[in-house]
From TrEMBL:
It comes from Algoriphagus jejuensis. This is WG repeat protein. It comes from the Bacteria.
Length: 523
């Protein structure tokens, strides 16, 4: 009989002699009907994009074909980041970059890489390199104080306290400031003033404006020679969309013009949104949505296309509305007005929501109920929280438990859930006691609450996890892939499921060899 120490030694030796396949695992490729197509050996597979599949095995990191055949050696240890069309790969000496078509652009030796569609900016220490895919060329930029690729593909560098545009027609021209924004034009500053620069690095407004700042899109707000300016960027020459010798104040996204010290106009990026006498105050309450108060105690709600609620008496405030009704307040209470400012539902509630599918929530005290557009009470105030209706169903919370409500305020699930999540496919993911289930859009159970995780990939396939194992099912509960695998990755471009088998170690036991004769008297 082999002694325990010898057996352990033999086990260790057998383990070391095993092939690399021992450390990797089998992936099976199934079509969406659950039919096996092929197999491959990888430790891990990731789908980065519609055409990018990466596999990791003992031999390294590899780009794969749709049928999991190796295509390109990525020469690294892990995917650092995928910023389409660039795959950033990390190795022992740094980060490198591959195009999603397989071409290597930068070696794996950089500390940081910035990406644009056709360019890469690599950094090592204080030195930078620029890769241009169109020219398939990497250019050393030298040691810089800083550099960045803008979202529009401009390159801004900093050196010796100045800014530069190396890709422009005058790459050594210094600027005091170059500032990117959400539009297509850079804000620039020189000793002569502020200006605007286009994608090619050329001025479309000369740097002569005393004060200039970006507002939104391609618009700028400025001041020069006692004039207030609203400017729109242009490829060749920027336009002054509006100018005035009267003061235009700007606080965040709110711009107001004052004439002889009195508030007169609400401004938008390229001109006047509202010109009205008697305005007392304007408050921005949402994107391009303003509450406007007048001196005669009238309040209105102004939108991009004009009045959403006409200025009316007896309104302390108005909020954004829906379905033609707007939450409004008077004397500390809340109700609803229509577009003419007339009370449709009198202000007698502590708080209201907005209407969705002709139902809104309302609050008296600390709990919420439901009310219809005609003011009819649908549900008394008994809920800690109610979310808006969608497809005839709302989610409500009481004492830490969640319920589904129909438009009559009736509860669809008698037993509450610890969590309910509405999915974009129209289903409800529910959780109870750490287990998950799936309901349809009417609250009917599709999958029982017995899974650790349910991932709805599309209306016909769900990847589920139960007792630590993974499988795939359809909405009828039919099994597509049995729930006995380690992992499933959906490849929708290839219309297939990549399934990772459980790791099954191969152990070869060797018995102690018998040599010579047994000694006399030996047991």
């Amino acid at each position: 009989m082999t002694s325990p120490p010898v057996r352990l030694l033999l086990l260790a030796s057998a383990f070391l002699l095993c092939t690399n396949d021992l450390f990797s695992q089998t992936w099976e490729v199934y079509d969406l009907q659950g039919k096996l197509k092929s197999r491959a050996i990888y430790d891990r597979i990731e789908i980065l994009g519609e055409t990018v599949i990466v596999g990791k095995s003992e031999s390294g990191l590899t780009m794969l074909s749709p049928d999991l055949k190796p295509m390109v050696d990525l020469k690294g240890e892990q995917i650092y980041q995928y910023l389409a069309p660039w795959i950033l790969v990390k190795g022992p000496n740094g980060i490198g970059a591959f195009h999603e078509y397989g071409q290597q652009a930068l070696d794996l030796e950089y500390e940081e890489i910035q990406t644009y569609i056709s360019m890469l900016l690599g950094k090592k220490g204080g030195a930078y390199w620029l890769y241009d895919k169109g020219k398939n060329k990497t250019t050393a930029l030298g040691t810089l104080d800083g550099a960045k690729l803008t979202k529009n593909g401009q390159l801004i560098t900093q050196r010796g306290g100045s800014y530069f545009l190396p890709l422009s027609s005058d790459p050594e021209h210094p600027y005091q400031l170059l500032e990117e924004n959400d539009g297509d034009y850079l804000l620039a500053k020189e000793s002569t003033g502020f200006g605007i620069i286009n994608l090619e690095g050329d001025y479309v407004m000369d740097p002569v404006v005393a004060r200039l700042e970006h507002t939104r899109g391609d618009y700028f707000y400025g001041f020069d020679e006692s004039q207030y300016l609203l400017i729109k960027g242009d490829l060749l020459k920027s336009d002054v969309a509006y100018n005035s010798y009267h003061r235009i104040s700007k606080e965040g996204d709110l711009m107001l013009e004052y004439i002889h010290g009195k508030l007169r106009r609400v401004m938008e990026e390229d001109g006047i949104l509202l010109d009205a006498v008697g305005m007392e105050s304007v408050q921005l309450i949402g994107e391009e949505l303003y509450t406007v108060k007048f001196r005669e105690n009238k309040t209105g709600l102004l939108g991009k296309k004009g009045w959403q609620v006409q200025p009316s008496l007896g309104l302390d405030w108005i909020k954004a509305g829906n379905e033609g009704l707007f939450p409004a307040g008077r004397d500390g209470m809340s109700g609803f007005v229509n577009a003419s400012g007339t009370w449709v539902i009198e202000p007698k509630y502590a708080e209201t929501g907005i209407f969705s599918e002709q139902i809104s929530k309302y609050r008296n005290g600390g709990t919420w109920g439901l009310i219809g557009t005609d003011g009819r009470i649908i549900s008394d105030t008994k809920w800690d929280q109610i979310k808006d209706f969608s497809a005839g169903i709302a989610i409500a919370n009481s004492a830490g438990q969640f319920y589904l409500l129909n438009k009559s305020g009736e509860v669809l699930n008698e037993s509450g859930f610890d969590r309910i999540c509405r999915l974009k496919e129209g289903f409800f993911l529910v959780e109870k006691g750490g287990k998950q289930g799936l309901l349809d859009n009417m609250g009917t159970v599709l999958l029982p609450i017995e899974f650790e995780n349910i991932q709805v990939e599309n209306p016909n396939i769900m990847i589920v996890k139960r007792d630590g194992l993974t499988g795939a099912m359809n909405l009828n509960g039919d099994v597509i892939i049995p729930v006995n695998y380690q992992e499933i990755v959906a490849d929708w471009t290839g219309k297939q499921l990549l399934v990772k088998e459980l790791y099954k170690p191969v152990i070869i036991l060797a018995e102690e060899p018998i040599s010579g004769k047994r000694k006399k008297g030996a047991n």
